[in-house]
Amino acid sequence: MSDDLLKTYLFADRTVRVVGLNLGHAWQAAHQHHQYPEGVARLLGELTAAGAMLAANLKFDGSLLLQAQGDGPLSLIVVECRADKTIRAMAKLRENQPLPEQGGVQAWLNPGGQGQLAVILDPSRKQPGQHAWQGLIPLEGDTIAEVLEQYMAASEQLDTRIWLEANEHQASGLLLQRLPDHGGALDQASETTEDTTHTWDRACHLASTLRPGELLQTDTDTLMHRLFWEESLLAFEPQPVRWHCTCSHDKVLDMLRMLGAEELRDMIAERDGDIDVRCDFCGKPYHLDSVDSTALVRQLEQQPDTSEHGRLH
Rounded to whole angstroms, what are the CA distances from 205 to 38, 161, 166, 235? Predict the structure, then answer.
C-alpha cells in the first residue's frame, strides 16, 4: 500500500492544515544500496516522511534540509527535500560502536545530550551575498516527531503536531499545523481566537486517536475519512514525491580530483589499483579500474596541486 503522494487538506474555517503522506517506492530507493540496522532505518524513514511534509509549503525554488547529529552510534541523519518534491536521505554510523538493542533518538543519536537538529533552507538561485538560512536546536525528545515539534514551536512559532512511522518498506506521516489568523475586525478578535483554538484542539484530539501501525497500514484518503469524517475538509491536488539523487560518474571524478594526486596514489596502492566509492545518499557504487585510476593520477600530476578534501554529494 503506497501511492507516494503528498496530500494536503484544510479545515473548513481555513485555520488548520492537514498533510498526509505514504512513501513506498521513494523510501525503498533511499536504502536500496544500504544495509541499515532496523533502528536506523526507522529513524531515517521517519525523518524522510517529515521532511517531505514540511517541504510541502516551500515558497521558493530550492531545498529544505533536515540534519540531526550527535555522539551516538548513529552519528548523522540527513534528509533533503526539494521544491519539486524530490527527496534523498542518508545515515552515517560510527565504526566499532555498540548499537542499542532498542530506543529512539536519544539512544541512537544523543546519549551525551549535546546533539543538534539543523534545519536549512537553501534557495537554488541566490542573490549576491545571500546564503542558505540555518536554524539550530538541541535534540530534545525521544522521537523524530517530538524533535521537530520542538523546532516548529521554538523557531517557526507555529503550533504543529506530527505523527510518523517507518519500516523497511514504507515511511508514513501525518502533520497538523495551526495557521496564523490574518483577518477579522478588532471587536471580533476574541471570538475568532476562541473559534480557531476550538478547531485546533478538535483536530489534535481526533488525530491523537491514531493507533500504532495505523499510518503504515492505511492509505491517506482512508485515514483522513477515518479521523475527520465529521469535518468538511478542502482537499488540494495531490503531489507526487519521488526519490532523486544528484550523484553521477562525473561528480565522483570531481570529488576524487579534490583529494589530490598523493592521496589518490595511496588509495590505489591500498586497493590493488582500483578505486571504489559509494554515494553517501543513495549508496550507488562507482568503480574505477586500474587504468582509469592511474590516468586520473597522471592528469592531476600535470597540473598545480590544489588538494582539498571533498565529499560526494
Answer: 30, 11, 23, 20
